[in-house]
């Protein structure tokens, strides 16, 4: 099969022929119909993820059809249209038993712990726990966009951040995660402020429900405090930046909640005194388990959420190496979806 292969960190990968995966016991192999290009893929390419062993095929946001079924898998057959969370949980540990598959200690992640979806085919382990059946009217492109950024934002905003109607919510960074969060928070009735350096991203944020947008500047915190009457109820770092973390915490009102979704490979400095004195909450959020997808899919089916509009670019597999390398210069607005060869 054709796949994007990383041989050296930070060196553009190549598209080449590699062996097609075979389904292990309890696993399936999918024919990849669509896969998303995410900043997490860039972190992996740069060598920020210790789970990656070179040579490596990235890609963790995916949708496709089942091409092969391993022994012990029931309820699924060749041809089924499916997606999967980027965290493939084991299904049998203590965390999985409690419904917290997103923090399974034995989790596998396509594109990180094993070869991923920047390819014609990809394996999905622990299939009975991790496959999500797609509605017939949901496109593969839209479904691929759900698997990491949209699902991560949905759980972060709705379940971890507990965003409620009428609250002031500030989203820092309007790439795929951030724009998804804008749409979801607005759909829940929050008043959303979007912050970014990119005017095109801010334009999309307004289209997706942001009541206010701010071009990032040294005055951002004061502008937020003015717009929110003293500070936001919830802030979210959707990019991953020490500077954004500091601004996010300063922009909160007392007893406010900060959501950290963007990765921070270089670490972060926290004003713990402010966390204590203002009784702020620092909340990490990491993906969403397959069993939680039905609520999100129902809202999509009802038209309350429209993740398809977040897709701003589709590219063939051959253009993926250049698109991955371009993330070194910034995150483009919206979602980029990759189409492997038919």
From TrEMBL:
<dbReference type="InterPro" id="IPR020843">
    <property type="entry name" value="ER"/>
</dbReference>
<keyword id="KW-0560">Oxidoreductase</keyword>
<dbReference type="GO" id="GO:0008270">
    <property type="term" value="F:zinc ion binding"/>
</dbReference>
<dbReference type="InterPro" id="IPR036291">
    <property type="entry name" value="NAD(P)-bd_dom_sf"/>
</dbReference>
<dbReference type="GO" id="GO:0016491">
    <property type="term" value="F:oxidoreductase activity"/>
</dbReference>
<dbReference type="Pfam" id="PF08240">
    <property type="entry name" value="ADH_N"/>
</dbReference>
<dbReference type="InterPro" id="IPR011032">
    <property type="entry name" value="GroES-like_sf"/>
</dbReference>
<keyword id="KW-0862">Zinc</keyword>
<dbReference type="InterPro" id="IPR013154">
    <property type="entry name" value="ADH-like_N"/>
</dbReference>
<protein>
    <submittedName>
        <fullName>Alcohol dehydrogenase</fullName>
    </submittedName>
</protein>
<dbReference type="InterPro" id="IPR050129">
    <property type="entry name" value="Zn_alcohol_dh"/>
</dbReference>
<dbReference type="Pfam" id="PF00107">
    <property type="entry name" value="ADH_zinc_N"/>
</dbReference>
<dbReference type="InterPro" id="IPR002328">
    <property type="entry name" value="ADH_Zn_CS"/>
</dbReference>
<comment type="similarity">
    <text>Belongs to the zinc-containing alcohol dehydrogenase family.</text>
</comment>
<dbReference type="InterPro" id="IPR013149">
    <property type="entry name" value="ADH-like_C"/>
</dbReference>
<feature type="domain" description="Enoyl reductase (ER)">
    <location>
        <begin position="10"/>
        <end position="338"/>
    </location>
</feature>
<keyword id="KW-0479">Metal-binding</keyword>
